[in-house]
Amino acid sequence: MANRAAGTLVGTGPELEPGTPGTVCDLIGCRRPGGPLESACLHELAAERDGPLPEVRIDLTKGAAASAAWVTVARVSATPELVLTEMRPGRAEDRRRRTAPHWTTGPRLRVITLGRTRLLGNEGPIEGRWLSNRSGRILKFLVAQRHRTVYTDEIAEKLWRESTPASVKALRYFVHILRTDLEPERQGRGKSSFVLAEPGGYALDRSNVEIDADEFEAHVAAGTEAGRAGDHVTAIQRLAAGVALYGGDFLADEPYAEWALDERDRLHNLAADALRTLVRLRQGQGQDDPEGVLADLERLTTLEPFDVEAHADLLALLVQRGRRSEAVRRYQALRHRMLSTFNEDLGFSLADIALR
């Protein structure tokens, strides 16, 4: 039951009649439809946990003594069936843990693959040298093959160049290490939230694992479709959101891994095509955006150092905007690159560019 001070601080929940005593769950909104704790009860969670739950902030209803409250819930160790709730006034403008806390929604893992590999868990970054060791490479391989189950002998063959009973046994051991690295608090051989054992192999649990490459691809696909439908505003927004996620080549910290090459090339080409489409859309159909075009062309020419047409477009824009010194430097670098790599000179001069 909630005491009088708690009721004064928190106010009356929308489902309580004035003057009716309620539980703390009523006051803080456990399982209240539309609230941040709609799918969870803090007290049920605390009853299953040895220590207190992390402090969480809730917005209070009109008529409460404060606009927000900080809530900490913990099981009473001497009397396990009792749960203690502590509340203190908060401020609405304090946005820390404002909505549903991660421990009410289950474990989540976000894998950043575009650029150097990074992992984000419920509590923040997951770091360690293990990412560059065998357990980390198993995770990266599963990410590269994220749309299917990968057989154990295939993993051993791709990562260790052999598929023998000994290598398969070692693989199972390193998968166990990987699961522990990702979830240090996992009990013994308890079920992994992220790496599933499937018949004959392993797969990522896509219900709990988010991968930035998939988000990037979804934005680009939606933007491309919107462009084809003539909705250029939406197309620009979605394509820009997609290329913003492209922080570098797929699994850039595995530059020599043959098993990553196809996916790396596919996503690289997708990013380049998205940038070309963005440039075209920003330049036409009343969406003229010189700064956006310039930024997109700079990114495109970095991704595609031998795309002479893209470089020529960038040079023309630099000259138009009076950035002639930069145009000269870029022209000379491009000419040297083409001559040294293909023994091929450029078919235009800067004077030609200035006349465009």
UniProtKB/TrEMBL annotation:
UniProt-listed GO biological process terms: phosphorelay signal transduction system; regulation of DNA-templated transcription
Pfam families for the chain: BTAD (PF03704), Trans_reg_C (PF00486)
Annotated GO MF terms: DNA binding
SUPFAM superfamilies with a match to the protein in the record: C-terminal effector domain of the bipartite response regulators, TPR-like
Alphabetic keyword roster: DNA-binding
Gene3D superfamilies per the UniProt record, alphabetical: Tetratricopeptide repeat domain, Winged helix-like DNA-binding domain superfamily/Winged helix DNA-binding domain
DNA-binding region: 100-206
PROSITE patterns referenced in this protein's UniProt entry, alphabetically: OMPR_PHOB
InterPro entries in UniProt: AfsR-DnrI-RedD_regulator (IPR051677), BTAD (IPR005158), OmpR/PhoB-type_DNA-bd (IPR001867), Sig_transdc_resp-reg_C-effctor (IPR016032), TPR-like_helical_dom_sf (IPR011990), WH-like_DNA-bd_sf (IPR036388)
Family, similarity comment: Belongs to the AfsR/DnrI/RedD regulatory family.
Protein name in UniProt: OmpR/PhoB-type domain-containing protein
Organism: Baekduia soli
Source taxonomy: Bacteria, Bacillati, Actinomycetota, Thermoleophilia, Solirubrobacterales
